[in-house]
Write a structure and sequence with these properties.
Number of helices: 6
Radius of gyration: 27 Å
Helix content: 55-70%
Order of helices and strands: HHEHHEHH
Largest sheet: 2 strands, antiparallel
Distance between the termini: 64 Å
Number of strands: 2
Strand content: under 5%
Length: about 130
């Protein structure tokens, strides 16, 4: 690693250069943050994506996505001359929002208890 030695008399110049670089970095970070905070444009929502990206968005495996597309649960597209199945981001996001169910802690506890057939042993083994 090449370390550049800064002399005392060059310190003000080096400090001003460092300040300008920090300002440029700050501006870049703010620009990236604003892009992340803004909702995707309509073009991005209507963009056709492949099965791998659809799996990532839905949190499902490929066979499940293909099965749901075949049963018309998820809207899919197959452009002319294309062998691959395609999806629109907006369709996938709409499906996720419409198919989700809100589960509270009491419901989860009841589902767990309904699956228990015997009284669980205590941790101490008595």
């Amino acid at each position: 690693m090449d370390k550049e030695q800064i002399k005392f008399e060059d310190l003000p110049k080096a400090t001003s250069e460092l300040k300008s670089e920090v300002k440029a970095l700050r501006a870049s970070v703010e620009l990236l943050a604003s892009k992340l905070d803004s909702p995707p444009s309509k073009d991005e929502d209507d963009e056709l994506i492949g099965v791998d990206e659809a799996c990532r968005i839905l949190g499902l495996k490929k066979p499940t996505v293909y099965h749901k597309a075949q049963r018309k649960e998820i809207k899919s597209y197959k452009p002319a001359g294309c062998k691959k199945l395609m999806f629109k981001r907006s369709d996938l996001q709409a499906w996720v929002q419409s198919s989700g169910r809100v589960i509270d802690s009491e419901t989860i506890l009841k589902e767990i208890q309904s699956g228990v057939r015997h009284k669980p042993r205590s941790i101490t083994g008595k």
